[in-house]
Amino acid sequence: MATDQEMKIHPEGGVIEESKSQEMLLNMGPQHPSTHGVLRLMLKLEGETVLDCTPVIGYLHRGIEKILENRTVMAGIRYMDNSDYLSPMLNETAYVGAVEQLMGIEPPRRAQYIRLITNELQRIASHLVALGTYGMDLGAFTPILWTFRDREGILDLFEALGGSRFNVNYMRVGGVLHDTPSGWLTQCEKFLDELEKNTKELDALLTGNEIFMARTQGVGYIDPQQAMAYGLTGPMLRASGVNWDLRVNRPYMAYREIPVNPQVRQEGDCFARYYVRLNEIFESIRLCREAIDKMPGGPISTRTPIALRPPRGETYFAVESSKGELGVYFISDGSEYPWRAKLRGPSFINLQILPELLRGHKMSDTIAILGSLDIVLGEVDR
Amino acid sequence: MFSVVMAEAGSSDLWTWWTQFVSGLLSWETLQYVVAFLSIFGFIMTSAVILILLERKVMGWMQDRLGPIHTGPWGLLQTVADVGKLLLKEDIHVVKSDKLMFLLAPSVFLAPVMASWAVIPFSPYIRLPFTALATGIVFYVAMSSIDVVGVIMAGWSSNNKYSLIGGLRSAAQMISYELPLVLSLVSVVMLTSVLAKDGIGTVSLWDIQQYQDTWTKTGNGVLDFLFQGFTPWSWFFLVQPLMLMIYYICGLAETNRSPFDLPEAESELVAGYVTEYSGMRWALFYLGEYGNMTIVSAIASYLFLGGFSGPGVGFLTGLGNIWWGLLGNILALVYFVLKIYLLCTVFIWVRTTLPRLRADQLMQFAWLILMPVTLCNIVLSGGIYLICNALGLSNLIYLIVLGVINWLSIGLFIWIVRRATVATTRRAQAPAIRAQRRASSVPALQLRDGVPSRVSELPAGSSVAGGGSH
């Protein structure tokens, strides 16, 4: 290491000291514009090169898992919204899916299809935020405003569906809360057309840009073995060339009827992760359209008792969230309250590789790499 | 000095010295300088206010939003209100800062920006006496390199790691981009020395602008009115377009604008060297930055776009009537300010479009691409002139040949930049490519046994609510 004290003998006598730079400890965060919430990174810098990094988490801990134990199953769904606050619908689906699996209920087909549409819309919304903030991290100001404009349309659709824009509280054990309002599906299709156009524009703005490519290509490389060893899932895993998508490999609900084309890239760098997310938006648009076309009629919910008591036992159910495998490990003692509900948050697990990735990179790359992980601190700290 | 004068001179001599000093202080020249200072300061202040509003509005349109609309009609008073707020804000000092440097840094940053305006003629009548004007480009370059001192002072004295990194980054950046900036200006000076009858070029902006006027009176009133002093076909950007481009790129780096805004990279360094500043001191930094933007645009418009020239200016001021002359001057001022704002809009456009470079890529771009290209251009301009001279060709043919080559080399420049980007990314991607090759030689990764990868392979009537059940 260049910081080691080295002494050299000058040829003409005397001792000269190697010029050495001092290590600097930089606390990045928890209040910092681009740590995506309240993540604190303790960076050990030499000049601009990162020697080591220690992420410090827990600034957003709200004890969601403990809260779930103290609420009835139905009341707990609402708290799942706050876990990964960029994809509430997916969290809810994971939670009610676990309860349904334990109780042996299958929701009606229409409910499954509505769940698919809302999940895919939520995935689009989450990816839009990820792409927009990624552009912001790299200094491009425009993408974030464009993506938030598009995301607004999704929130409007959710508002029409569940009455609330953000924390929708829409999923129920055995189905969904309401049927789609009349005209909602047409509105949704119209929105998807516009979204496709806008996303292509975003693609044209960022993807081919030389500076963007120079900043992201080859930065933060994860090889497939490493990715699997760290338990990465979602776009991060698929960007490293591992074809693993729960919607394909463990199809659940309507995904058994509507096949998904998983988006895989081989490069394993920040650009690949960006590109996988971008392509997943297009794939989600396709899935939504197909689900709207195939939308069956019928009830939207099975009858469940008002005091919902899952049978004694335990189960694990996972959905492919926007960030990766979002699993709920649900243990019931036969009462109205879950005995334990453990969340396997993809953000938390994807974050673990960060120190490994940062070592040796420049300080500017810290932001590029952290942004490409697409973590949500609500889910990391829970 | 004063005491020495007192000791050597008698009381009467002292009195003459004093009267001379006072009369010098109250002379017409001093008043000119005071008025010039005040008007330049006023111009920078106003143009910063207008530019900030313009930037927010233009960025708003480009980003599909409205920009400021609430304060005043159409949001026009927004920046005025902001300035009022900044003036009234508390001036917060960091306790453990280097007090003197912390307080001085904004002034050190702003002063050279204002000083460099001394070389700019605003219109045929409005300019400083020619002493300051004659050193033109050299004076501007000297002033713009003092800027960096203020930035380093701010970065060092704030006692903040983000500020320090920002200050050092900007020191490296400003010094590196100074060189291609100067070299790109040299090409214009070379053109003037070719055009000058005695073969001696000029660095004065006023004279450089005169070289871009090739109109001879025709006697046709309409044509004379339009084109006297305004001949866009002989502007230097037609001969040296690549140098205008490079000058502009360097100007972006000099003013710390996107995509070279690393010193104040918001997403990395919070606000860089201005992190600890608030209130009016913070505003002084921003004033300096926007003043810098306008000065870069002003120099570009003088060297490449004919300065304040426009239809009617030369004709009206040439009439010899003071009132028509005044009208001509006002027109000239309008053209000049319009050209500045047009060039500033390009700054804004670039900001909305491009992401930010990394520090090492920034340095590579300056030293490995811009420097060789500008040097090559100088050699090329000189070489072609020597060849044309040897063949006995006229200046016009030389300019046309040089212009054609320069326009072609814009394409070459873009190709080089693209190529360099691809080359660096390929090098950076080497581990990924290696891993791909490794992966292709071993059988595909087996994830888990017996997992169907497609829906069609699923057995009929598989599990009820799916999911990775145990």
From TrEMBL, chain A:
EC numbers for this chain: 7.1.1.-
Its membrane topology: Peripheral membrane protein
Any single GO CC term annotated in Swiss-Prot or TrEMBL for this entry: plasma membrane
Keywords attached to this entry: Cell membrane, Membrane, NAD, Quinone, Translocase, Transport, Ubiquinone
Keyword Membrane attributed: yes
Database matches in InterPro entries: NADH_Q_OxRdtase_suD, NADH_UbQ_OxRdtase_49kDa_CS, NDH1_su_D/H, NiFe-Hase_large
A single MF term (Gene Ontology): quinone binding
HAMAP family: NDH1_NuoD (MF_01358)
Biological role: NDH-1 shuttles electrons from NADH, via FMN and iron-sulfur (Fe-S) centers, to quinones in the respiratory chain. The immediate electron acceptor for the enzyme in this species is believed to be ubiquinone. Couples the redox reaction to proton translocation (for every two electrons transferred, four hydrogen ions are translocated across the cytoplasmic membrane), and thus conserves the redox energy in a proton gradient.
The protein, known as: NADH-quinone oxidoreductase subunit D
The species this protein was found in: Thermosporothrix sp. COM3
From TrEMBL, chain B:
Membrane-crossing residue ranges in chain numbering: 31-54, 100-120, 132-156, 177-196, 233-250, 290-310, 322-350, 362-384, 396-417
Annotated Gene Ontology cellular component terms: plasma membrane
Localization per Swiss-Prot or TrEMBL: Cell membrane; Membrane
E.C. number: 7.1.1.-
Annotated membrane topology: Multi-pass membrane protein
Catalysed transformations (reactions): a quinone + NADH + 5 H(+)(in) = a quinol + NAD(+) + 4 H(+)(out)
Pfam short name (any one): NADHdh
Keywords carried by this UniProt record: Cell membrane, Membrane, NAD, Quinone, Translocase, Transmembrane, Transmembrane helix, Ubiquinone
Keyword Membrane carried by entry: yes
GO MF annotation: an example: oxidoreductase activity, acting on NAD(P)H, quinone or similar compound as acceptor
Alphabetical GO biological process terms: aerobic respiration
Function: NDH-1 shuttles electrons from NADH, via FMN and iron-sulfur (Fe-S) centers, to quinones in the respiratory chain. The immediate electron acceptor for the enzyme in this species is believed to be ubiquinone. Couples the redox reaction to proton translocation (for every two electrons transferred, four hydrogen ions are translocated across the cytoplasmic membrane), and thus conserves the redox energy in a proton gradient. This subunit may bind ubiquinone.
Entry's family note: Belongs to the complex I subunit 1 family.
Subunit structure: NDH-1 is composed of 14 different subunits. Subunits NuoA, H, J, K, L, M, N constitute the membrane sector of the complex.
Name this protein carries in UniProt: NADH-quinone oxidoreductase subunit H
Gene source species: Thermosporothrix sp. COM3
